[in-house]
Amino acid sequence: MENIKDTIKELERGVYDIINEDRYRYKSQKGLTKEIILDISHKKNEPEWMTNFRLKSLETYQNIEMPTWGPSLEELDMDNIVTYVQPDTKLNGNWEEVPEEIKDTFDKLGIPKAERESLAGVGAQYDSEVVYHSIREDLVKQGVIYTDMESALRDYEDIIKEYFMTLVPPNDHKFVALHGAVWSGGSFVYVPEGVEVEIPLQSYFRLNSPGAGQFEHTLIIVDKNAKLHFIEGCSAPKYNVTNLHAGCVELFVKEGAYLRYSTIENWSRNMLNLNTKRAVVEKKGTIEWVSGSFGSKISMLYPMSILKGEGARSEFTGITFAGKGQILDTGTKVVHAAPYTYSTINTKSISKSGGEAIYRGSVRVAKNAHHSKSTISCESLMLDDLSRADTIPVLDIMNDEVEIGHEAKIGKISDDTIFYLMTRGISEEEAKAMIVRGFAEPIAKELPLEYAVEMNNLIKLELEGSIG
Amino acid sequence: MSENNRKIISPIPVRTWRGLGVNHAFLEEQDIKLKPYHRQIFEKRNSIDEFGIVTELTEKQNQEAHFIDKQYKGLDQNILEQCIKEYNTGVYIEAQEGTSRQEPIILHYTLDKENNTLIDNNLIIAKENSEITVIIQYDSKVKGYHNGLTRIFGKKGSRIKLVKVQTLSDDSTHLDAVYTKLEDNAEIEYTLIELGAKNGIIHNQSDLIGTNSRTNLKMAYITDKDRKIDMNYIMNHVGRETNSQIDVKGALLDEADKIFRGTIDLRKGAVKAKGKEEEYTILLSDKVRNRSVPILLCTEHEVEGQHAASTGKVDENKLFYLMSRGLSEYEAKKLIVEASLNPIIDQIPDELIREEINDYVRRKFINE
């Protein structure tokens, strides 16, 4: 059967591409100097230890070399990135008080609607600062804290000082050091012992200002036997200048606790997404990552689970869709650092129209982590011969009482399957879309409904370009 | 490049996180005094018959190995140059067009007191539609240094079987590179047995250039004590309908340290290519380190690529059963390891060599 040729069109990203006028109250100078850091810190009225932390991170940043592996980051010119953009509004607790233009964007993205219907709390960040935060009364009564990082630093300074960038230290890699120096915004969540938050909390990050960087910090502590589902969404309109996202997520899952961290990332195609996410899981705790990577020009994103306590578990479910001009280098890392720890990795990637989807992962089993189990499965789907799909996993095992299984597959949509579906009266386009949806299905079903719908819409958007 | 006194060699085709130590192999810097090697390597010196040629490698033949990819660096530029410019022994094998040699050609490299430095440079040319089997053995009773290069050119429709058996002493250095280039419909089957050496660093690059060219690599190893083994296998699919398979099985004992790096590169244009790699490791001690990097690279969509790696302890049920039949724990483990490796060892078309390997494996377990 004749191979199906894909045609490429520029995609309509609809609501994601809404550009608002770049209105801000304050914008830092371009580039990165001690003065800029001091300026940001003073604007935020930070305690001295945080100012010093930023300066030390800056020093670290200047001393660490760029990554020697992965996609080229040549185009990243830090002298042209604005690290801090304060939107022209204050932090609002009431949706109606959010400025019209910003509100309109989030309305179109469906954030307040989702809050009304299915969320226990919402945070919305616009450029460098959180503009809206709300949490349900009953959760507040149970002692749940959900607030922006700036407020947290003011109101819960001791906790922040104890945890902030201890799991992901600034010397971990260059962009974490950068984050330590210029971080702004993000969310802080604390769920007290035994409290089960049944409905998800959600933060949405929107970068509107051109040539800017977003460096939000998310710190979540789920205390003993507590339970939380946290959702993170990201988007930005497209400009012709490079934007940078170097956020940092630190998750502390205490004994017997459960945390699910879901992300649908749909940054615009001029974004370098160099985000760092890490969870440490204590005895019998569980971390579940659900990660969808659709946007950005270059992504380097590998959420890491450190299974520190006996019986800790991690589960990573990821999907990556790389279209024209995108290099999405994604994956996950797991460290089994205690006996009887379990990890599951399940990833799918789709590449088309010259897009590059790279799975990069590592699973390490430490000497003491006897009776650990890990199951890894990676599948890639190539939709044409312009694209790239690579799988680069590493297994490092230092104990013999383990069971590790790893599988990976690369393939294309079977012409036979398409042909079969077509004989059943389904058009070629629809057949192809059905197969891709089926491929993504195991991931979609892990997402909350409205996100699954969003993901399906994204897949549809992506495929329309190729099939139309 | 060097890091402390360790040389960084044998890079993987794409790098990953540095902290995992898998981007390269490491070789302790050592002073190698180049010495001549005088032992006879094959039975009939300089034979020419109706099946082709088996002679000591001449400088002219060495220079004429133009088929090799210009980018090819083997383990490292210097190590490769040592083989090409300073080799102290080597064999040229040519299979005559359209012939099929049934008897394997056996090259036996032994290191002894007088000949403890071996730098061998072997060249195998299989002409159109020829069939040939070559067995290369490396063994030693003394501490030695081995750096070997085997270049293979499979012309159209040729079928090559290459068997390599390495049982060097536990304190020897073993550097080994194999480069193969295949034309249309050419095929190579590798059977590689790695049992000895303190530090074994093995590189195999197969360029599947011709349409429907095929490689099938089977490898078995046992690594014990504080020995190290590093494998870097690279299958480059260039031609249409090319097929590669990597199948590695091994056992790690004591404080052994193993890195398996296998890359299947399905390049644009390699339409309907298939690549598959499988690795299975049996762990027999809680002090071993077992690293695997099974890489799939793909820039062509009409392909199938897959890899699988698994690791585990010896099956407790099997062990219990065997021990209930009166076997000691080690005997039982030996039996299980043998059962896993034998399908690969059995591929060797020489009974004497199979026996030698089995003896060697048995001795490994008796020493414990």
From TrEMBL, chain A:
InterPro entries, alphabetized: Fe-S_cluster_assembly_SufBD (IPR055346), SUF_FeS_clus_asmbl_SufB (IPR010231), SUF_FeS_clus_asmbl_SufBD_core (IPR000825), SUF_FeS_clus_asmbl_SufBD_sf (IPR037284), SufBD_N (IPR045595)
Ranges in coiled-coil conformation: none
A Pfam family: SufBD_N
GO biological-process terms attached to the record: iron-sulfur cluster assembly
Lineage top rank: taxon: Bacteria
PANTHER family cross-referenced by the UniProt entry: FES CLUSTER ASSEMBLY PROTEIN SUF (PTHR30508), UPF0051 PROTEIN ABCI8, CHLOROPLASTIC-RELATED (PTHR30508:SF1)
Segments forming domain SUF system FeS cluster assembly SufBD N-terminal: 43-202
Record family assignment: Belongs to the iron-sulfur cluster assembly SufBD family.
The protein's name in its UniProt record: Fe-S cluster assembly protein SufB
Occurrences of domain SUF system FeS cluster assembly SufBD core (ranges): 205-439
Organism: Anaeromicropila herbilytica
UniProtKB/TrEMBL annotation, chain B:
SUF system FeS cluster assembly SufBD core domain: residues covered: 111-339
Superkingdom per UniProt: Bacteria
GO biological process: iron-sulfur cluster assembly
Signal peptide: none
Family: Belongs to the iron-sulfur cluster assembly SufBD family.
Name of the protein: Fe-S cluster assembly protein SufD
Protein source organism: Anaeromicropila herbilytica
